[in-house]
Amino acid sequence: MYEKPFSLEIVGPDKVVFKSEATSLTAPGVDGMFQVLYNHAPLLAQLGIGRMTIKTVEGKDSDYAVSGGFVEVRNNQVVVLVDTVEAAQAIDVSRANAAKDRAWERLHNRSRDIDVERAQLAFLRALNRIRVAGRAA
Questions:
Q1: What pLDDT shows up at residue 136?
Q2: What would the pLDDT profile of 73-104 be if each residue is shown by its tens digit?
């Protein structure tokens, strides 16, 4: 089955991560996962922490660990602006595990000056990176 492509651009804080045609984008919205296909209705959505998957016109899936940002869909042009983005195959799992352990320690050995929300988000981002890297292995 032929799936019609749309233009997709993913922009991280310091570079364009992806700029090509795609047939599908699955992303973690703050209210749950959503998928964009050809002729999707106009949309502006906020991203949460999770796995973003692109299906290229060649039929290949590419996974990314993302946290925060926005997706704009308009006239078969999709722009994703992300706070953090890392390709699955580029994730350093040992570094992600160390970040998870640090966040866990901060959450369970609380001192008065700990920013609990920041530690929780750090823990969730590290877990996400580990999960996304695990699927790529």
A1: 52
A2: 999 999 999 999 999 999 999 999 999 999 99
Question: pTM score > 0.90 for this model?
Answer: no
Give the chain as a 3 state SS string. Answer: CCCCCEEEEEECCCCEEEEEEEEEEEEEECCEEEEECCCCCCEEEEECEEEEEEEECCCCEEEEEEEEEEEEEECCEEEEEEEEEEEHHHCCHHHHHHHHHHHHHHHHCCCCCCCHHHHHHHHHHHHHHHHHHHHHC
The encoded tokens of residue 11 equal 């922009």
Chain centre distance of CA 4: 23
Q: Which domains does the chain have, with CATH numbers?
A: 6-88 (2.60.15.10), 91-136 (1.20.5.440)
Render pLDDT for 101-110 as a digit per residue (tens, 0 to 9): 999 988 888 6
Amino acid identity for residue 80 in this structure: V
Calculate the CA 111 to chain-centre distance.
Answer: 31
Q: Which residues make beta-bridge pairs with 72?
A: 44, 79
The torsion angles phi and psi of 15, rounded to 5 degrees, stand at -165, 165
